[in-house]
Design goal:
Layout lengths: L3 H7 L19 H21 L20 H14 L1 H8 L4
Helix pairs in contact: 2-3
Length: 97
């Protein structure tokens, strides 16, 4: 389950209140946002932490990303990049006891 902070951050990219029912056709659901967030966390762990192929201070603007202009595609990309950035990694690594 996403933390309140993650929900607030995803709210920047997701224009709806319901958990998995987008109000606008073609937008990303909460499940889709959570999946893309998990992908970003995995990519960061794999390429930054394990293999040291990318710098520790990697930020979303440092990476070029391409997407089709459909809202759900743009939102997928934004959620993945947000999770992969160093600021998001610091937040993700600080889990409550």
């Amino acid at each position: 389950m996403p933390s309140p902070e993650q929900l607030a951050e995803w709210g920047l990219y997701s224009p709806w209140e319901e958990s998995n029912a987008p109000s606008v056709t073609g937008t990303l659901t909460w499940l889709g946002a959570a999946s893309q967030h998990a992908n970003g966390v995995w990519l960061r762990d794999r390429y930054v932490t394990q293999h040291k192929l990318l710098p520790e201070d990697l930020h979303a603007p440092d990476v070029a990303a391409r997407s089709t202009p459909f809202p759900r595609c743009v939102q997928s990309c934004q959620n993945e990049q947000t999770a992969r950035s160093s600021v998001a990694a610091q937040r993700t690594s600080r889990r409550p006891p």
